Amino acid sequence: MMVVRGVEVDHSTLYRWVQDYAPELEKKLLWFKRSRSYYWRVDETYIKVKVKWKYLYQAIDKGGDTLDFYLSATRNTKAAKHFLSKALKRNKRYVPLSISSDKAPTYGEAIRELKAEGKILNELLHRQIKYLNNRLEGDHGKLKRLIKPTLGFQTMKTAYATIKGFEVMRMFKKG
Predict the structure, then answer these.
(1) How far apart are CA 57 and CA 151, in angstroms?
(2) Environment class of residue 101 by beta-carbon count within 10 Å: exposed (0-12), middle (13-18) or buried (19+)?
(3) Which residues are CB-neighbours of 95 under 8 A, at least 6 positions away?
(4) In whole angstroms, what is the distance from residue 107 CA to residue 84 CA?
(5) CB 57 within 8 A of CB 72
(6) Which pLDDT does position 99 carry in this prediction?
(7) pLDDT value at position 78?
(8) Residue 82: what pLDDT?
(9) Which H/E stretch holds residue 66?
(10) Residue 135 contacts by C-beta under 8 Å, 6 or more apart in sequence?
């Protein structure tokens, strides 16, 4: 876009812009997000940060819009609970009636703990059906295609900010 307008910008400058402005842009656009559904799909995938695998937890609604994501060094109940708590806090008006996940036992334990704490309704239905998360699995693939040209991340902070920028731009693309 910049070259078309006659402005040459180095790739490192663009990288710094993404790190600085993506979180701010995401905060501003949060207000404009359209209504969400009460049916969530959650899953995790892995990405490399400084040659180590880290886990990217992601939640989308029934329509395919990203609700939230969380980057963690571990894939356990504590990380799943932290992710779900963060997503619930961010989407206060849309407390889920149903959460679909893969067969990972960490989600079941995390949901039980959140129910016991009163953060999730006791009537919430946790579905672990393989094919319900196909849309989310496709979303992971698209995100990984964006991440691959970045040649990896050096810190969790830069990975988080860059992925947040990707999610903002994908929000525009999804409508």
Answers:
(1) 21
(2) buried
(3) 38, 88, 120, 121
(4) 9
(5) yes
(6) 93
(7) 96
(8) 96
(9) strand 66-72
(10) 41, 60, 64
Residue 108: predicted pLDDT: 93
Q: At what angle do helices 156-174 and 134-147 cross, to 10 degrees?
A: 120
Confidence (pLDDT) at 31: 61
62-89 in b/e form (b: 16+ CB < 10 A) is eeebbbbbbbbeebebebbbbbbbebbe
Q: Which CATH class is domain 11-174?
A: alpha beta
pLDDT of residue 35: 53
Mean pLDDT by 10 residues, the chain (175 residues): 78 75 72 71 91 91 85 94 92 86 92 93 90 84 84 85 83 72
In the DSSP assignment, the letter for residue 155 is S
Are the C-beta atoms of 71 and 168 separated by less than 8 Å? no
φ and ψ of 30, to 5 deg: -60, -35
User: Which residue is listed with tokens 């239905």?
Assistant: 125
Name the token pair of 105. Answer: 């036992």
Name the β-bridge partners of 41: 60, 100
